[in-house]
Specification:
By secondary structure, the protein is mainly alpha-helical. It has helices at 2-33, 50-76, 96-119, 122-128, 130-133, 148-164, 169-186, 209-218, 229-233, 241-252, and strands at 85-86, 167-168. It has a two-stranded parallel ribbon with strand order 1-2. It is globular and about 55 Å long. The N and C termini lie far apart (56 Å).
């Protein structure tokens, strides 16, 4: 029993540290130290309130406990022997570590899209997903602001990956860090993509902060996490996305009006 408590404590400590460092640094930079400097990057002109930040942090502390428990379940309990997670680097070629990371993000994006659409069903939304959508004007702190049941669903991706994709423990750690960095960017509330992205091939592939911010402000469309393809294939990409993105970028680079 004591070892289980220690394992959970270590996993919870890691998850909380990851949350406060990865979400905290951009919050300090964009919302406190350089708020005026980044004013033109702000997607929604109004600022979120302090009580919004407090609510988001409190829910995220709870969610971190759920995510930690699910990760600890597959990494540090007897269930581990039935998974495809491996420790020795020579069990697979070294190139498989970055390759499996990319594949894990693709799998996660698919899982997230359909799970996200499910929690938007009218019969489920107000009981499960409304907590997250209280952040109409999201901040980095809102990245883990979930209802308990949604936190369980969000963390289930680690369980799925453990049984369908061979992953080194290093890849699992990289996945949790990479996915959370992208998650924080999606909830940043500011657009930081370079001007050149709009004319590149990547613009049609990846999500931007504007992409997910529009989902929070409109409550519909743009359900994916990393990539645009599921929303495009299923006809759920918000029709105002590219127009809003262009307006924010024009404002940033001096080609358009200020916030409105």
């Amino acid at each position: 029993m004591q070892s289980i408590v220690h394992i959970f404590g270590a996993a919870y400590g890691y998850t909380l540290a990851r949350y406060f460092v990865i979400a905290g640094i951009p919050f300090i930079l964009f919302y406190i130290l350089f708020r005026d400097r980044f004013r033109k990057n702000k997607i929604q002109p109004r600022q979120a309130r302090r009580k919004d930040f407090v609510r988001e942090v409190l829910y995220s502390i709870m969610s971190s406990g759920v995510l930690s428990a699910e990760a600890a379940l597959v990494l540090f309990t007897p269930l581990r022997q039935y998974t495809l997670i491996y420790v020795k680097a020579d069990e697979y070629p070294l190139w498989w570590i970055p390759m499996s990371l990319v594949i894990s993000l693709v799998i996660h994006d698919t899982y997230f899209y359909w799970m996200h659409r499910a929690v938007h069903h009218p019969a489920i939304f107000r009981f499960v997903h409304l907590v997250h959508h209280q952040s109409v004007n999201p901040s980095p702190w809102s990245a883990y602001s979930f209802h308990f049941l949604e936190a369980v669903a969000e963390g289930a991706i680690v369980l799925i990956l453990a049984f369908v994709l061979p992953m080194n423990v290093v890849t699992v750690i990289l996945f949790t860090i990479t996915s959370f960095i992208i998650n924080v960017y999606g909830h940043l509330g500011y657009e930081v993509m370079p001007r050149g992205l709009r004319k590149s091939w990547w613009f049609g592939v990846i999500n931007t902060s504007v992409y997910h911010n529009l989902h929070h402000s409109k409550f519909k469309g743009n359900y994916s996490l990393y990539f645009r393809h599921w929303d495009r294939w299923m006809g759920t990409e918000h029709p105002e996305y590219e127009e809003l993105y262009d307006r924010v970028q024009a404002r940033r680079f001096g080609d358009g009006p200020g916030p409105r």
